[in-house]
Amino acid sequence: MKKIAIGLYAALTVALLAWGFYQAIYVAPDEQTMHEVQRIFYYHVPSAMVAFLFFAVSLAGSIGYLAFRRNHDAWAQAADAWALAGAEVGVVFCSVVLITGPIWGRRAWGIWWTWDARLTTTLVLWLIYVSYLLLRRFAAGPQVQTLAAVLGIFGALDVPIVYMSNRWWRTQHPAPVFGGGEDSGLAPAMATAFWWNVLAWLAWGLLILVLRYHVERQQQKLAAQQAQSALDAE
Amino acid sequence: MDQKAILDHQFLVAAYAITWAIQLGYLAWLGLRWRAQKRQSGGNAR
User: What is the pLDDT of residue A15?
Assistant: First the structure.
């Protein structure tokens, strides 16, 4: 039953991604100044939204780990697995943002990169979470999960700064499309294609987030088994 | 198609292709890890 449900969800996700692609390429109207290259927007912005959401999952997991680590070990381990899964899948989506953005920028602005507030804070966010993953991968000892949780919480503080950066400072990056005042907003046909892609990438992101969580939980169980075997052998 | 439109198209294709390469690459890496873990846990059970 569980396998059927996962299969159905995966099939629905693939269908949503195909529909989102069709909407972005064939249905959404051509933007008047940037023309075809503006369609990068339909992958770039949803990826940023999903990345922010998963960094929030990582934040919740990190707080949960710190809250439960002394009294509820099972809960703490589950929270830690969510923190790691959120950070890793968030980095994947943030990488998409940091690569598709410059490709779009090269055609729209004539440059690949500029050190404006939005781009720089996004790069810093990515670097913080990459350092989180490197800490998890290469450090050893009983304090690694605690240190990672603290880093995860500090990393998440950059998310609202990234979000507000093009409101607080003048940037090369365009002004906010949503919630940016009277002049912001999308044409209805563009908005339809955009929200389909948000839904599709969110569905995809949740699929790989849950898969990553299960891989990490399995890893925790294997590590516990190996530790127990080592104790039994003594 | 003029030169600008061709370049726009190529940049769009590059952005979409790289997005898919990153996402599917990550999924493949996760799948490999999952399979390795299943083998390892099977070995431990024996």
Answer: 97
